[in-house]
């Protein structure tokens, strides 16, 4: 229902804006019609019982998680199942309904009844034990002192049992700390709170009011800051670190500056990162930060101190110096530098030879580039070198049927360069010859052990009832003994709509090449098709971006703060909708909604394709931003788009574009669509 509410709000807002002051209806803009049309298509897609927000994958559900499901609707559907396979689920939701609507004692009786009947339903049982612990903590807080001793004893009994099954679950540790605090054991509670605070996750924010009562050593504050940085709570970590700097603790100042540099680097504020990393003694990362900030003079100063080191870092800095010369148009100097590194530094010989060959290729020294590329391919056999050897050969007017056969015969899911070759030469007669798209074979359900057969039947019923989360959780309890069972497992995840699990499952197959429809699932099919049709973007491209951005994790959050399936920054999402005449406030919570995230991401892709006119540059801009791509195209001159892809300055963007285009080609074939060339 979350998706529907989001779009209804947008629709209602635009309808109100569509009325003129005289009461006459203005002609609605195309973006508004787009949303209306999208609403019509999405209305039927709303899954009643699977909420569009993050639920725990491995730990039991909390009461607030459970109560977000449509309890009454689930009971109604489960009551119609006469097979008895889901009787524990029916009892589970009925127990929750009693706890929501009745007294504490009635709830306790219902929980006891469930355990006596369905004590072997492990996941459901521990959901309800956590439910009981939460209610007990609330009851202890609200009860008089005369009743507390019994309640605390009951809490401790269930707490110990829960902790033995899920020792990593900090939710119950927090509850135990609360119980201790409420029953006069403040010192013990603070010791528990301290452990939770130092983890730097959401409990830090719940408990930081206690910091005045919990003295932390410098080493503990540094540990807390590191954990906050891992959790992307950069501002909070900075506040702690600046506070530490004022104390000027001996022996730890460099550690503080190093962590401040980590924060600035993660935020891509490279100029500020240089100041902190230099003071933290991180010369290599300081040099990289100067390079990324465009301060090549300071980069050279630091590089000269590192380049003669016989180390991986010294080698990388030497390559960066040559790269800077090459990007400045000083090809001869760059080629000479790469050659010296190749001859003198054993730690990065292959990288140095590749950089020399690439500089030779771009400068037009094709004969020499051809020779170096041939050497590289004979050393490693990488398709990257084979591809550019073919391109150099093509420019030199040398046809090579053997090389063409090799490139055309490499499965595209195994190499981006095989996919790139298919894009370049789509009518070679070998197009997609190595891409198996037949349905993978799965083990006969009837031949499985009885317990496994029962689990998969339960999964099927739960999926059909819209209880996809519970279906996928059932699948996770199965240990597949061979590929046949594992394929059935992957398909069960697919039916449950657990697309992130499908990819992880298929990755574990001994031969994934025969099961590309599992490695590349057509996730959120109806939403994707509807959004892509309305915006005019290939659904294959939408799926490719989604797969490579988030691996289909609805609640994925990047270090930079991008959210959801298509990894959108809230500010960018607002800007995109505003450009279409839609005024809607975006935040990380509503961007985890699949329908909204896919629609906004697809719209953004469409805008970028319109702006850049080419798929590859549009995909690069989706990752690095329009301004960056425009700068690269303006500053560096490429003879073709495949040269641009190979030479994208940011490694993460370069590999991202390669992965997306490879996935795009595969999805085009799986969907039976003609793939548009990326150049």
Walk me through what this model shows.
The chain has helices at 2-17, 30-43, 63-66, 71-79, 87-101, 104-118, 122-142, 145-165, 170-182, 186-198, 202-207, 218-230, 234-247, 253-266, 270-279, 283-293, 296-306, 312-327, 331-344, 349-363, 366-380, 383-395, 401-409, 416-424, 450-464, 468-475, 483-496, 499-507, 516-519, 525-535, 539-550, 570-579, 594-612, 615-624, 626-635, 641-646, 651-670. The chain contains 37 helices and no strands. The longest helix is centred in the first third of the chain and has 21 residues, at 122-142. It is globular and about 90 Å long. Among the domains are: 2-43, no CATH class; 63-184; 445-499; 525-670, Lysozyme. Helices cover 68% and strands 0% of the residues. By secondary structure, the protein is mostly helical.
Distance between the termini: 40 Å
Per DSSP, the total helix count is 37
Structural class: mainly alpha
- Poorly predicted runs are 1-55, 426-443
What's the CATH topology label of the domain at 525-670? Lysozyme
Helix content class: 55-70%
Major beta sheet summary: none
- CATH architectural name of the domain at 525-670: Orthogonal Bundle
Oligomer: single chain
The number of E-state strands comes to 0
Task: Work out the radius of gyration.
Answer: 29 Å
Indicate the CATH class of the domain at 525-670. Answer: Mainly Alpha
**Basic shape:** globular
User: How would you state the average pLDDT, rounded?
Assistant: 85
Proportion of beta-strand residues: under 5%
